[in-house]
Description:
Layout lengths: L2 H16 L1 H6 L7 H19 L1 H36 L5 H8 L2 H11 L6 H19 L7 H27 L2 H23 L11 H26 L4 H8 L2 H11 L12 H18 L15
Amino acid sequence: MNRLQANICLLCVTFCWSTEVIIFACIPETVSPFATTCITFLVGGGLLLLAFFKRIVAALRENAKKLLFCCIFMSAMNAAYNTMYQFGLDDFDVSTGAFTLSLTVVALPVIILVQRTKVEKKTWISSVIVLAGICVALSDVMSKDQVPGLALICAGCVLRAFYIIKLNEYARKYDPVALSALICLSGGIISFFFWLYVQPTTFFGISWSPVIIASLAIYSYFVVALAITLNIFAQRRTTAADSVIIYSLEIVFSVIWSAVLPASLITPVRLTPFIICGVICVVLGNLITIVNFGKNKNKQEVSGA
C-alpha cells in the first residue's frame, strides 16, 4: 500500500463514519449511548476475533502486556473524547456539529509541532484552508449560548488529536488486526461499566426490535469492525496530520446527508452560502493532502498492508 492508496482508505473510513447519524436516528433515545457503544464494539471486536483468531493470538504471544496496555489506553481516550462530543453536540445541528468536530485538524499539527516533529508545508496549507472553511460555516450560526458546547468540543478535539497521534504510532509498531480487535473489545468492556452504572438492567432494559438489532448489526460491522481496521492499516502508510485532514471530509458527507435524506432519518439543514463555502474549503484542503504530487508517490510499499 502506498501513500495515495492509504489516503483513499481513509476516505472510505470517513464515509463509513459519516453514516453514524443516520444509524443513530434508527435507534430510540431510550437506548443509552453507552449501550450502543458497548454492544457495537463487543460485536465488532468479536467478529474480528473470530475471523483472525490465530493472527491475534500470535500478536499477543509476541508482546501481550504492551499491546494490551496500548489498547486499553486508546479505548479510554476514545471513550473520554466521545463523551465530550456527546454533551457538546447537544447545541448544534448535524452539519454545524460536523464542522465543530473537525477542529481537530487545527489541534493536531500544533501538538506535533510542540513535540518538535516536522510538519510538511502542504499539511499546514491544508489545515489553514480547512480551518477557514470551518470558521466561515460557523460564523453564520454561532451564538453565545453555544459557547460552552463549543468549548467542550474543542477540549474533545485536543484529546482526539493525541489519540490519532498515538494510533499512528501504534499502527506502525503492532499488528493492525490485533490492535483493532483489542481496541474494540476493551472499548466495549469499558463502556459496559458506564452502561451498568446508568442502567443496571443493561441488556434486559432495552426494548428489542428488528430495527434496533439491524441498526446495531450494521454499525458493528461497517463503522466499528471495518472502519477501525481499515483506518489502522492506512495509518501505517500515512501521517497523523494528513489523516486528520481527510477525516474532516466527514463534514461534506454530513452536509450531503442532511440535505438529501428525509426528515425521518436526519434533521434537515438548509444549505446557506456560508455552509457551501465551508464545504468547498474543506474539499480543497483535502485535495492538497490526498493527491500526492511527489515524484515517487507510487514507489514505496508496506509489506503486509
